[in-house]
Write a structure and sequence with these properties.
195 residues, alpha/beta, 17% strand
Length: 195
Amino acid sequence: KKALLEEMHLPTDNLDRPVIGIVSRFAEQKGFDLIAGIASFIEENDVQLVVLGSGDWRFEKIFHDWQRWLPEKVGVWFGYNNGLAHRIEAGADLFLMPSQYEPCGLNQIYSLRYGTVPVVRATGGLDDTIQEDTGFKFHSYTVGSLYDALRTALGAYQNRESWTERMKRGMAKDYSWDASARAYSSLYERLLGRG
């Protein structure tokens, strides 16, 4: 976490402060119109935001503005950097994916494996892979619903013992092809009347 904050040119004076991570293409489909509405949340809460991505110029401008406006709280890397993407996945406390729709999504699965707790919109693969005991979901595609999910996550973060248990449950999830193959094989056996 400390190395990530240093790399993103953010203060490291309080490593208990929650860090919210985003690695994404900046597009409305990925929920950036909602993210654009949480500036006051970032300003009013004792959090830091680390962002990696590029895309729609409107959202790039918002992050440029936030970085200037809240330099102690917001660090942004424009473009793509695979190593940094994984360091954000591993070093953040929360990983934000408020997508309008998401057929599958991999970043929330990477986050679980690293022990970073996802905050996602309950849609498609995000809804399928994140449970209430491993992350935080919201249903309505509104800024208010995103705010509520983030507030709930920050409240849960305060109880470090239960937070650590949530992280461990996420890290124990198995989304490998081996697990999928076993599930498909079991389904096939049941359909044939052998299971």
